[in-house]
Amino acid sequence: MKRMNTKRTQHKGAMHTNKHRIMTLVAMAVISMAASAQCTYKNTAFKNGEFLSYNLYYNWKFVWVKAGSASMYTVQSHYKGKDAFRASLTTRGNNKVDEMFVLRDTLLCYTSLDMAPLYFRKGAREGSRYTVDEVWYNYKNGGVSLNQRRTYKDGTSKSVNNFREDCIYDMLSIFLRARSFNPEGWKKGHVLNIPIADGNSIDPAQLRYRGKSTIKADNNKKYRCLELSYMEMDNGKYKELVRFYVTDDENHIPIRLDMFLRFGSAKAFLTNIKGNRNPITCIVK
User: Fold this and answer.
1) How far apart are CA 39 and CA 116, in angstroms?
2) pTM for the whole thing?
3) Which of 21, 68, 222, 278 is the most buried (most CB within 10 A)?
């Protein structure tokens, strides 16, 4: 009788242990799904095949000169076998401006179809400086793991790993997500705080709403725009890096970008729109 009771006790203990393990695995799965879900957002602003092109201008000794071109292309693609959006932003200076300042930036990102960041790459050549930043995102254990790497001009690189329980973005994926924000009710000065990753760190950043304005693009059309500043923390203070003027409609297409660079400032003015998702309703007659 004692042996039978012992077996029953062992059996009940095993059942309890297995049940506990199953519940733990289920809880971990739910937490992982929740971590991924909280970093998603419904895209209402763009679709597969959107192409935007720009003229670039650079400020040289208080004179604005034609500096080259820029383009942004967004397509539906695949990342690690799953459906994803791929967005690229490329700036190209011309030979004339290269004599004063070399500007070559290429940004690439992959996000899930519901806007969770998956991968980011930025190749930046500004003057004699050249770096490549990369970020890989992995959603698990109730948060997001980031593998980050910065590669330098001489081919050397440094890598860091980070884990955060909040959602992390890069400067391109947050821009894609921000295009679907609903600014109704925003007042001038409204701030969205966002953590931004690059090749070697995660830094506080902000999107700051500055109100509305009318902007003339290089296609000779005028657009009613929302004015937004992208700002990053620098020596304890927020420093403006880019000011966006985006259409005041459901597309939120950038019409003009003011870029505050390490060696001066540049502007980009829209020249063409192809493949927009929604009707453009903010053209000023």
Assistant:
1) 5
2) 0.82
3) 68
